[in-house]
């Protein structure tokens, strides 16, 4: 039962993702012959190359001729013609410079020359814009792939989008380049990990092609997208006809091992935990569910991934100190649901051993702690042991505000190499924080940010407007909090509240004055749902508050006048290279006229 695990496009191309490395390690530990591929970075490498950009240029030219030959054009068609004409005007320059642009992001000396970085970044984004224009209304960028038809929210439209070569650039890429690059006859099972909305159409396109071309393969899908939407697939046997034989929900290590065991023995799929599959024409979700203790799972195995191909000058390795969320109560969040409301963490020595081994193997000191939130206790212990052993890393981590986070803790973790911390602020109004069940207060948020800043750490905060019942006055309290703490908050990412399926807000809407959740049958796998609330700001008001917050940030935050489209992994490298003070806008290592915004 030789298995190939694939991480498909579209995801940020700065580092590997942890899903297939953990599954690969577990299956190899159980004795299964397992390989893994990162089709995400492979997709970028090909899209950002002359052959595929020439193909996009050809499609754009054909569209221009087709539009010009029409007897009349709508305003939308005229606008698209202008876009195509402008793109073709610059396409030659983009194609000529694209290999150089990738080289800049992979070469330390050129990566840290910010003028060179900006030029490379602009060229890469312009190249992806050519791909988008050639396949409009689809949108392909470093941060997203959107079909333009809402196909990522609908099983019905997904069937159409994965066959529509005019709007889906991945069809040509897979058929002509990536699928022919593998000897699929060598494998029995292919697992495709779809962890984000932007991967749904690219991932399903790959699954459909493999299922059609290689009927001997068992195609298994996995990832949180299908865990949250498991119930939505009941009654849709056509989804399995097109895309897969089974879907592994929730944590996948042991279920995937059990699936291989069943397939090898010829046992029924009904014996496999966490599995959705067809039984005749009925979609069945097996009742048995298993999760392992996190400390029992082998550390991630990156063998088989092209570590030198990511768009970063050094390997940046993702790690997990824990799986699940130690708090697990935030009412807007689905992470606890996906992990079965379980939380587990590595032992401190095992975590530091893993860091040391990865540092040596990949000759890097750069890591991203990808936990939902690292607990203060775990962060303290890991930092203490790293200092004791002399393990020098540079890392970022996501934290929850806790009263116990004192000066001693932040001084220790900064010394251990945690130079960039991201906090889930969400709101600075105590009533809204209580309704979210955030387990903190505005005063604690302020104190923690101040202590972290004083220790020399860069603080990034996430927040959103429009949580059910939030008033405009309460939302303004959050923007005032940002304005009043300019020294301690160095960058932030605002947004508008989204109602996630299977969050507490979704399960108990009456607690949040939600009168109606819009369940559109044609958006049956949508992750974010529309709703109507009887109290608080309207959706339009929340969007306006978000826009107002961004305008305030551009005016008052010096860091946001300088940094912006850098992904968080690249910002970590710049932070290590130039230091917090330089990137904070007091001593910028470039002319102040060069303005971008910081994406975290």
Please tell me how large the radius of gyration is.
24 Å
Helix share, percent: 40-55%
In CATH, the topology of the largest domain is named pyruvate-formate lyase- activating enzyme
Biggest sheet: strands, sense, closure? 7 strands, mixed
Instruction: Give the low-pLDDT segments.
Output: 586-600
SSE layout and pairing:
Elements: E1 3-7, H1 19-29, E2 34-38, H2 39-47, H3 50-68, H4 75-105, H5 108-111, H6 114-134, E3 139-140, E4 145-146, H7 155-161, H8 169-178, E5 189-193, H9 200-213, E6 218-222, H10 224-228, H11 237-243, E7 246-248, H12 253-265, E8 275-279, E9 282-285, E10 316-319, E11 322-323, H13 335-338, E12 344-345, H14 348-362, E13 366-369, H15 376-389, E14 394-399, H16 407-416, E15 418-426, H17 430-436, H18 442-454, E16 458-463, H19 472-484, E17 491-493, E18 499-500, H20 504-507, E19 514-517, E20 528-529, E21 531-533, H21 539-556, H22 558-562, H23 568-578, H24 580-583
Parallel strand pairs: 1-2, 1-5, 5-6, 6-7, 10-13, 13-14, 14-15, 15-16, 16-17
Antiparallel strand pairs: 3-4, 7-8, 8-9, 11-12, 18-20, 19-21
